[in-house]
Amino acid sequence: MTDHAKRTAIFPAITAATASGAVPAASGPAVFAPASGPLEIAVLVMPQASLLTLGSVIDPLRAANRHLGARAFRWRIVSATGAAVPLTCGIDLPAEAGLAGLAPVPDLLMVLAGYGAREQATAGVARSLRRAARGVRMIGAIDSGGWLLAAAGLLGGARVTTHWEDLEDFAAAHPDTEVVPDRHVVAGRVASAGGAGPAQDLMLELIAARYGVTLAMQVAGTFITSRRAGAESQLTAIAAGRPEGGDPRVTAAIARMETRLDAPESAGETAAAVGLSLRRLQSLFRDQIGVGPAEYGAELRLQAARRLVTDSRHPLAEVALRTGFGSLSAFSRAFRARFGLPPGRLRRQPRG
Predict the structure, then answer these.
(1) Which tens digits make up the pLDDT trace of 42-52?
(2) Is 156 left (phi over 0), alpha (psi -120 to 50) or beta?
(3) At the topology level of CATH, where does 3-222 sit?
(4) pTM to 2 decimal places
(5) 3-222 and 234-348 share one CATH topology?
(6) Distance from C-alpha of 231 to C-alpha of 193, rounded to nearest angstrom
(7) What architecture is domain 234-348?
């Protein structure tokens, strides 16, 4: 059997998709292009990453292999040292190798991180990651993995996204990088996704680029989901999910609140911006969400403040300003009323 015949037998979907014109022309990086063979992927998983996000990366690839009847995508789980990685759900994830043991060199090196990524981007990890990235065709940042790629000097001013909770801090820390709130981005040698759902969309885009849209649709169908555009804003997507099937003006109001945490507007101003009277907006919120827009907006700000208190080292006065409180005392009172203890005490508590 010739090499061409072997490849046709191993990857039947490539031949069929190419013949039908389903596989798009190579317009981006070589990894996001019609396949010429298996794709080798290394997924560096950092401590306190999410199992859901990891599944969103590798399960679409597994499903694609199943539909193709071949190992078109091959992946390895890697940790910084080769040791098992503790995930947020309490599971210790075994690793197949450490960063120093990536042989052969993968085509795609993806960094998946969650809580504490900024602190995990130490000089030693950055050096190891920089060495491991030599010779790879493409690198990827999933969730907050961009902190590690940036520390290793691997972003190079690329257009990237990160989890929406990190967008402001990441952009401020890396002004030479174009940081966007998109669900996922493929730009040059760098791919990035903002969390579990966007990571799945990114993998579906990879599958579509290599084997055609039909296969990507089959994989999406396996998980009873659909592909969402990478350019869709993470914040808009979050708002669109609350409440499902609700009035689009409520969705628009929530999106405004999400983007104005540091300078909240009154419920009346929000209502006017989305073309409603205050009374009508209040009625829609109570019908669809169970609370009024003012209460909902306050809860958004307090939840954002709680994340900043527990997941960052920003001074509490800065947390207050970034979540729309005029003073530290007003912030502390509201925080204690909502969560039962002041923000400083919560920060000092060990994480469960």
Answers:
(1) 999 999 999 99
(2) left
(3) Rossmann fold (3.40.50)
(4) 0.71
(5) no
(6) 11
(7) Orthogonal Bundle (1.10)
